[in-house]
Amino acid sequence: MGAYILRRLLLIVPTLFGIMVINFALTQFVPGGPIEQVLARLEGQGDVFQTVAGGGDAGTTSTPTMQADERYVGSRGLPPEFIAQLEKQFGFDKPPLERFLDMMWNYMRFDFGESYFRSISVVDLVLEKMPVSITLGLWSTLIAYLVSIPLGIRKAVRDGTSFDTWTSGAIIVAYAIPGFLFAILLLVLFAGGSYWQWFPLRGLTSDNWESLSLWGKIVDYFWHITLPVVASTISAFATLTLLTKNSFLEEIRKQYVMTARAKGLTEGRVLYGHVFRNAMLIVIASFPSVFVSVFFGGSLIIETIFSLDGLGRLGFEAAVARDYPVIFGTLFVFGLLGLLMGILSDLMYVWIDPRIDFGTRG
């Protein structure tokens, strides 16, 4: 097992390097880079994605001798020295390969630089947005597991009954409803849209958060997160519930279960003493990867609807503004954590079922 873990750890390096290479290469072909963004703001021009007006046809290409003030939209009234200074400040005076290698060297030392447009380090910016993502990711994952696993077990035990039929219909309907549509429905019904104003419309805490008692802060926190968490969790029940049900059905039909029942063991002892560990292998061992996908994926639409400033909105705004330090810094960190969570999932497989030995695989 130790050799297997070592191989997986060594594979992280080329995998993460490949992820960064592909994304860095793609950004070289996307119009409207950081310098164009700055120049468009200085010149008051809203569209930084226009082609450079060269006075020719649409198919005319720029010559290698193009001056610095002709390469960017909105730079007509600015001196070439200012453009060159911007390029140097953002590091665009270097060739792409050198910029990429410098970036990777800094990232290997966990130096992620500073945002181009926010005057704050990437690490501080991510930490600032982290509470929202922790809230949505943690509670959504926990609620999905706490509801789906008991429901899936009950559906397996009562397979083919009316309970199994109508619960399957309910969770499939919930899965089919788009998350943003359900979030809007919750706002209309329970956040003062047209009916009841039981929950707040925005934010994680109230304006008087600091003056509240400890119990008051706990109540205020859960009061604010109820609707966003429900909206982000509703579609997660279907897959996890059906996976739990099918896993239990497969195990219940095996010979060792019939043997346990023949010995006179109670149904609860059979299910939770014998079947549970084998049936829950896939479900529980996948918890780290599921949590990471929910946590770091960030729900842009949910955060926007409920006015939450989390990693989802941060990633979207960084992509629109071409804030490369934020884009690549978060990509590196979250990619690294995702790969490490894959190894942790394998370790959980072995912990749950010691008979599994990844080290013996060819």
UniProtKB/TrEMBL annotation:
The subcellular location is:
Cell inner membrane; Cell membrane
Print the organism lineage. Answer: Bacteria, Pseudomonadati, Pseudomonadota, Alphaproteobacteria, Rhodobacterales
Q: What is this protein called?
A: Microcin C transport system permease protein
* Originating species: Cereibacter azotoformans
GO cellular component terms attached to this protein's record: plasma membrane
Write down a Pfam family by its short name. BPD_transp_1
Annotated membrane topology: Multi-pass membrane protein
- Chief localization: membrane
Question: What family, per the record?
Answer: Belongs to the binding-protein-dependent transport system permease family.
Residue intervals of the ABC transmembrane type-1 domain: 130-349
Q: Name one GO biological process term.
A: transmembrane transport
Transmembrane parts of this sequence: 9-30, 132-153, 165-191, 221-244, 279-306, 326-352
Kindly state which keywords UniProt assigns to this record, in alphabetical order: Cell inner membrane, Cell membrane, Membrane, Transmembrane, Transmembrane helix, Transport
Q: Cross-referenced InterPro entries, in alphabetical order?
A: MetI-like, MetI-like_sf
